[in-house]
Amino acid sequence: MSNPLLRNVPAHVAIIMDGNGRWANSRGLPRTMGHRKGVEAVREAVRTAGEVGIRYLTLFAFSSENWSRPEAEVSDLMGLLKAFIRRDLADLHQQNVRIRVIGDKTNLRGDILPLLLEAEETTRGNTGITLVIAFNYGSRDEMTRAMRALAIDVAEGHLTADQITPERIASKLDTAGIPDPDLVLRTSGEERLSNFLLWQAAYSELLFIPELWPDFTREVFLAALKTYAGRERRFGGLSQPTMAVGS
Ligand code: IPE
Ligand code: IPE
Ligand code: MG
Q: Residue 51's domain is classified under what CATH number?
């Protein structure tokens, strides 16, 4: 279902969901309450993205650097992700959402990995929006794993060094088969990528908005999409209509 009020809807939006802790602090609440409220914002964002015709929505849920947070917060975030999958998987499946998980899946402890795999497996055949969950994800880690895989291919003689192309590198990343994001959006006013989709965002539009993630409502999302629609993308070329050289 696409929204006739919106033009130029990006096919792929990737979001750095930031500001849960500040949302809670500003209310005198523990950080965990911000994460809890953040889950509600996730539900609304997935719904809105599906409604307006976005094909891929990537959400940065937990970075490879977030392990350095206090143990209690890490375990709280794990608990929330597990609860989200347990509670929402049937509903997402029913909405025809396809789930993909990016990030390092090795060395995950406990029951998180089976749940992530179940979410991918259950929804594999769905044809609606693809929800890409970035969990234990960091771009440098992803690229390192891809380089190692290529090095093995070369060492085993399946590939020569000059056969390593940008396309081949992309095919070894966790995001293989997923188009690059058209828009990378970060909430909470921070203006950095924090190791998110560094390869894939080469030509993405970047948008940093002040709202904290728990305040990311449908209206805030639609306003961001409106800003995106006004951007001019060039990909190194010239703006349209193309000016003839010498004219
Ligand atoms: C985003 O909110 C959630 C995760 C990083 C998992 P934060 O927890 O980073 O909230 P702030 O940035 O401290 O406000
Ligand atoms: C990025 O937010 C990671 C996620 C949203 C999951 P952080 O809050 O971890 O980023 P920094 O530390 O402020 O750069
Ligand atoms: Mg943060």
A: 3.40.1180.10
